[in-house]
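Re: that chain you flagged

S.,

Sorry for the slow reply, it's been a week of failed gels. I finally had a moment to sit down with the sequence you sent. For the record, here it is as I used it:
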Amino acid sequence: MRHGVRESSPVRVCRGLVRRRVLALVSAFLQLSPAVPLLAWGGKIRIRRKFSPGASIVYVAHTQTESRLETEPKGLEAFLPPIPTNLVSDQENAMTVLSVQPESGAEVESRFQRFDIQSQMPENMTEANRKAFLESEEEFAQSLRGRSLTLRYDRAGRLEGLQGADDLLEQFPAPFREPLSEAFKYLLGQVTGEGLYPDHDVSRGEEWQRKLAPPLSRDLPFDEQGTSTMRFTGKTKAGGVQAAAIEYSFNDTLTPRLDQLPSFPPLVALAAQGLKLDIQIEGKGEGRALVALEDGRILENRATLEQVLTAHLKPEHPTARPVDPITLKLTTDTAVEVKGKDRKP
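Prediction finished late last night. Pasting the structure tokens below so you have them in one place:
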């Protein structure tokens, strides 16, 4: 029997990257031209997130992304913003439950105790540009270290809101602020297991599945087709804690609705030249999470993701003299590993 749940958190992490890359590529083409606790009875268990005031846990997350860029005609990479061929980030977040409201959910503080990022840039990048990019990257990482954000969760453990990042986002151009805010939410949802919990009691080997809903964004609406599937594989232990093991997978196709951004300057400029931009993102991934039986907190979460972004720049109206479209294909492979450790009172 299949039931609907929200998408798994690696899907959300993936989408945060999608939003930033789509908006950046649009500009680049212009240059080319609390719930109840988990219980067990009758051979089934209920996997739900339960928040307790004062509860605290530290999450250590490691993410590595490799990117490959192809263009047609060849050589257009030199006109695009630099894209790291390899990006590694390590972070440590202390999550503390500040308050719990039975009817509305919980308020949680997330403090970045550590945030490090390292990039490997394309070989054809000049040394001056490489240095400037890496300095900007380190400045961003430094601005996160020691910063605290306030998160709001609903009764089912879904992240509803984020406070404390506004001044950080002010350093970015206006069209990128909301996508980056969403990326923060995805990053924090990743360590809290958002979307992994079924809405019914499950037995070993049982699956729950849903069709993925388009991401919500005022800046960049999407159409989407895709499915996310979770499966409870049994009980285990993680660091001496009793846990439920959940395997998950997803595949989806996202199509940005660029026609709903008529005032976005780069699109206006392209339209004035008689050009049209089409973008499509195809993603797939799989992973395994360990969830504490007593309260549903994430103990471990590992995933691998693959994403292919394809963009075509072509004449909006075919003419007697057809012009070959400009095509860009960006492929990213990402590995995510998260581990949690309870903090001492």
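What I noticed first: The helical segments are 9-32, 127-144, 166-169, 174-192, 265-272.

Talk soon,
D.
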